[in-house]
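Much of our argument rests on the idea that a fold can be written as discrete symbols. In the encoding step, the backbone of a single protein was reduced to a row of integers, each denoting a local shape. This step matters because it turns folding into a mapping between discrete strings. For completeness, the protein is quoted in full, as a sequence line and a line of structure tokens:
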Amino acid sequence: MIALAVFLSVQMADAQVKSAEDAKKAVESARAAAENPKKAAKTATWLKLAGAYMDAYNSPVGAGWRGASKQELQFILGSEKPSATEQVTLLGTPYVKEVFETRNYYYTQNGILDIIEVTKPVYEDALAEALDAYRKAHELDAKGSKSKDIATGIQMIEGKYLEEGIAQYMFGNNELASEKFEAAANASEMAPYSQIDSMAVYNAGFTAELCGDYERAAKFFKKAIEISYTEQGEAYAKLANAYLNMKDTLASKKVLEEGFAAYPESQSILIGLINYYISSGENPEQLFALLDKAKENEPNNASLYYVEGDIHNKLGHKEEAIAAYRKSSEINPEYEFGYIGIGILYYNEALDIQDKAAVEMDDAKYTKLVEDFETALMNASEPFEKAFEITKDKSIKVNVAEYLKNIYYRFRDENPKYMEAYTKYDTIVKNGVAGL
């Protein structure tokens, strides 16, 4: 569920792309100048070296750029044709891959170039070398006359690192992706650009977590929280999970409680806290104490009572859960989630009873379980009906309709009104709510 967002640096379609040989010659010439004591004292020398390395970096990329259409590139590339074309799938997304001598282009199903994979770089460390050159240029630029040019160059490097990070993530190379996102974050903070790339920091932690490097993940999620980039509390939940995997349960608990205080509606934090209290055997009343503080600050926040209902529900406190869900709907009659909470509680109860009935061999007990199963289903129908009625979100209507369809399917032959209800919700599930 996680979504990785990146800043894209766009290479203009009409930019001149140097050959690898010419790019190398330009770098060697610029290096020679930088090794000359007189020339090395000039800002322009280092700007030229940075530019030469960027040209070398862009050389194997060809004339393509992210966001270009296949039709555009067919015209721009002219006689340069791919040596192979194949269908590939990256993280469940289909792409058309075109293979060139120095790179691979990955097009979306809509024919948009989304990923550029360089297979024959001119220099492996071109971006790092360019960044070092910009750093030296800034040190020599005492008057700041070239600050704008240097900052623009750094921003371009940051963008390239981000593109590489997202590409490696798509390829499933999460360790390398994390390194690229870290490089982007570090570049962004370099003067005179001096920006905090909060998404790069978060993504460095996210991809580190995916490859099981929890110490590294903790480092970046902690920084993300420090710079107030929390993804509505997800950073707290992920930091806590990292600590948990590092066997530091106290640190995990502390982070979850801090996160819950800031984001009491975060399901990730809530689930983490509930799991902690269940597994540790500690008194979960602390959860309600934290929630009471949140309710003191926002007594009319219906979602806080929904969260209270969720806590009780997950702890197995049925009546308390229903009461809290109902309270959320009383506070805000247009808050559909209170009704949805009650509906799901009864629906899940019905499924649990159904599982028990499936293995019950005693006829009398089986009959009683079937009765209880049907009662729980009907108990779920009323709150689901109410949620369907009041919600303005079409996707929620369809999701609720799925539950109601399943409920009325059970009773469709008992009463014409149930058959009518089943038909109504089955149609909505199949066709959406456009016809309502």
